[in-house]
Design goal:
By secondary structure, this protein is an alpha/beta fold. It is built from ten helices and 14 strands.
Length: 309
C-alpha cells in the first residue's frame, strides 16, 4: 500500500510514517518543515494544499494530520486556523476528488466535544466545539460526510484525546500542553508544578482525563485505512485510553516509574474545567478492531526516556 501523510514531520505524523514503513508500506511524507526522521520513500516540503493531483493519483490513501493545533492561539488568531485547517484542507480534498481517491483518514480532535454535559464522550451524542480550533476540526468532519456522498471520497475521522508518550527515536517537542509533559518538564527544570483544583467530584478530588499513547494513535490511523478497503461512507471514532486517569494518579505514576519526584502544589480550579472527561472507545474497539496497548505507566515511562535523552 502507498500512503501520503500530511504533517509527516510532526509528533503524530512521524509515528504514523514509522509504523507504516515497519508494516511494509510505501510512504510519501508532506510537511512544510523538514522532518527529523527518514520514515518515508519520498518527501515533499510544502503545504499540503499544494500537492499535485498527479501525485495523489499514485497513492492508495491519504492520512491528513497536518494542521494548526493549539486551542488558545485559535481564539486570539482564528483566521490562521480557518485558513490552514479549513481552506487548505478544502484544496487538498478537491485534488483528492480530481485524482479519484476513495480513502481519506483525518486526524480530528476531542476538541469537537467542547464542554459536553456528560463525563463520557460518545461520537453520536449532541456536542458543539467552544473554540475556533475545535470548530475547524468539526467543520472538516461535516465536509467529509458531504464529500463521501457526493464524490465517493470515503473517510474516517479520528477524535484524539490527550496524546502522549514516545518511542525510542521519536517523541514530543518541548513545552507540551498537557499535564504529563508539563509536570515532567517543570520537575526536570527544578521547578514546582501546580495542579489546578483538588475538590472535584472524583475519587481523589482532582480532574480525570483520558490519555492515549502516540503509538496506539498511529495504529488507529492505519486501522482506519484498512476499514476503508471494505467500507464506504464517512465515519467518526474516538481514540482514547479506554479509561480516565486523575491528575493525582498521573503525578503518582511519574513519581513511581521514573526517578523524578514532582514538587507538587495546588492552585484554584480553572473556570469551565469539567471534573471528568473521557472517551467512549467502544465503536473504535468493535468496528476498527483497535485496542490501546499502553497504560498510564507505559506512557509516562516512554516519555521520560525520551525527555532524558
Amino acid at each position: 500500500m502507498k500512503v501520503l501523510v500530511t504533517g509527516a514531520g510532526g509528533y503524530i505524523g512521524s509515528h504514523v510514517c514509522k509504523l507504516l514503513k515497519q508494516q511494509g508500506n510505501s510512504v510519501i511524507g508532506v510537511d512544510r518543515n523538514t522532518p527529523k526522521h527518514e520514515y518515508f520513500d519520498q518527501f515533499d516540503e510544502r503545504c499540503y494544499s499544494l500537492i499535485d493531483t498527479w501525485m495523489l493519483e499514485t497513492v492508495d490513501a491519504v492520512v491528513h494530520i497536518g494542521a494548526t493545533s493549539l486551542v488558545g492561539p485559535s481564539v486570539t488568531n482564528p483566521v490562521k486556523y480557518y485558513k490552514n485547517n479549513i481552506s487548505n484542507s478544502i484544496n487538498l480534498l478537491e485534488r483528492c476528488v480530481a485524482a479519484n481517491l476513495t480513502k481519506f483518514v483525518f486526524a480530528s480532535s476531542a476538541a469537537c466535544y467542547g464542554e459536553p454535559d456528560e463525563d463520557v464522550c460518545v461520537e453520536n451524542s449532541w456536542h458543539q466545539p467552544c473554540n475556533p480550533y475545535g470548530w475547524s476540526k468539526r467543520m472538516l468532519e461535516i465536509m467529509l460526510n458531504d464529500f463521501a456522498i457526493a464524490y465517493n471520497l470515503n473517510s474516517v475521522s479520528l477524535r484524539f484525546f490527550n496524546v502522549a508518550g514516545a518511542t525510542e527515536d521519536l517523541g514530543p517537542a518541548p513545552d507540551g500542553t498537557h499535564i504529563i509533559s508539563r509536570a515532567m518538564e517543570r520537575t526536570m527544570a527544578g521547578k514546582k508544578f501546580t495542579l489546578f483544583g483538588k475538590n472535584f467530584d472524583t475519587p481523589d478530588g482532582t480532574c480525570v482525563r483520558d490519555y492515549v499513547h502516540v503509538e496506539d494513535v498511529a495504529q488507529g490511523l492505519i486501522n482506519s485505512i484498512e476499514l476503508l478497503e471494505t467500507t464506504n461512507g464517512a465515519h467518526v471514532f474516538n481514540l482514547g485510553g479506554k479509561k480516565g486517569y486523575s491528575n493525582l494518579e498521573i503525578i503518582n505514576s511519574i513519581n513511581r516509574v521514573t526517578p523524578l519526584t514532582v514538587d507538587l502544589e495546588y492552585g484554584d480550579p480553572r473556570p469551565g474545567d469539567p471534573s471528568t472527561l473521557i472517551a467512549d472507545t467502544s465503536a473504535a474497539n468493535t468496528i476498527l478492531g483497535w485496542e490501546p496497548k499502553h497504560n498510564l505507566d507505559s506512557i509516562i515511562s516512554s516519555q521520560y526516556k525520551w525527555y532524558n535523552k
